Amino acid sequence: MRRLLFSIFILAFSLTGCRNKTGNKSGEIIIFHAGSLSVPFRQMADEYEKRNPGVKILMEPAGSIVCARKITELKKPCDIIASADYFVINKFIVPDYSSWSIRFATNEIVIAFQEKARYADEINSKNWMDILLRDDVTYARSDPESDPCGYRSVLTFKLAEKYYWKPGLADRLQVKNRTFIRPKEVDLVALIESNAVDYMFQYKSVAIQHNLKYIELPDEINLGNPELNNIYNLVSLDVTGSKPGSTMKVKGEYINYSLSVLKDAPNSELAIDFVAFIISKDGMEIFRKNGQDPIVPFSTEQPDLIPYKLKKYLKE
User: Fold this and answer.
1) How many other CB atoms sit within 10 Å of the CB of residue 127?
2) Considering only CA atoms, which of 212, 217, 250, 213 is closest in space to residue 233?
3) Pairing of strands 54-62, 26-34
């Protein structure tokens, strides 16, 4: 009997060791993320769940500012927040709700449309503003108060006014078609696909993911070139701040996405492991396939506070 019990113990210990060695994981990961991350994050989640069948990833897309307010004002449980602008996490989340953030991907503003759009055969990077301002043309953009793509669109208007030497252009673009402003950038896709509007100001990656036509704007106004930050910094916009009734100034800057795991994350260890997958070579390849350039290696303003499991990606 003793020998039998001992054998059972050894077998159970061996099986436990095997489970640990294979890296089996279980639990839920809750992610609040920018709408423009919906497609690549869904693909990453599917791949991660395939590798770890015991894991379920729950995702809530919204405008990045809305994502942050779910944490700071509504106190909703969350493991990972991923924003289309590092500024949002630095302003709302760090240091009270998380001690670090990672910048992991870039993008640029484009004008997206379908073949049925009015003057689709005429519009280009030089005449787009003249076409959009025609009375029979409609365009959409997202809300600057809830979504970085929204305030970036306005910053693009302001940069365009300077670049093309057209005084008053930014105001004219902001006033027109305000009924087609939506909470987040991916909400605009339905307006285009249903032909409710002709054009939209959108991230290049979203246009690619939805097989839309688009015109690229000059680097001086598309917020996609980090080497032109000195030009982007010339414009700014006031939006609702982190506290009710307050405002904050958003300066023009090249587009860079960021993420973080919260201090009180319900499943922080698993969340950090998923972040490691996001910023790994496999994760970055998913971004590339979806028309979004990763920041490799990623950057951070808190290198000493990054979890140990992620630090190797600072050098790779």
Assistant:
1) 13
2) 250
3) parallel
DSSP labels, 160-185? HHHHTT-TTHHHHHHHTTGGGEESST
Position 79: which residue type?
A: D
- Over residues 275-291, the pLDDT tens digits come to 999 999 999 999 999 99
For the record, the structure tokens of 213 come out as 């036509």
> Quick one: angle between helices 268-278 and 38-51, nearest 10?
110
CATH number, domain containing residue 29:
3.40.190.10
Any domain includes 31: yes
Q: What residue numbers bound the domain in which 185 lies?
A: 109-240
Same domain, 181 and 117: yes
Q: Is 126 exposed, middle or buried (0-12, 13-18, 19+ CB in 10 A)?
A: exposed
- What's the Cα-to-Cα distance from 214 to each of 7, 117, 266, rounded to whole Å? 67, 11, 41
Question: What's 301's DSSP letter?
Answer: S
Which value, to the nearest 10 degrees, does the dihedral of the CA atoms of residues 37, 43, 46, 47 take? -120
Same domain, 54 and 156: no
127 in a domain, yes or no? yes
Whether residues 40 and 127 share a domain: the answer is no
pLDDT tens by residue, 81-123: 999 999 999 999 999 999 999 999 999 999 999 999 999 999 9
Per the domain annotation, does 78 fall within a domain?
yes
Look up residue 302 and give its two tokens: 């808190």
- Tell me the C-alpha to C-alpha distance, in Å, between residue 69 and each of 65, 253, 262, 283: 6, 22, 13, 27
Residue 190 lies in a domain: yes
By 3-state DSSP, what share of the chain in percent is helix, strand and coil, each rounded to 5? 45, 20, 35
- DSSP label of 196: S
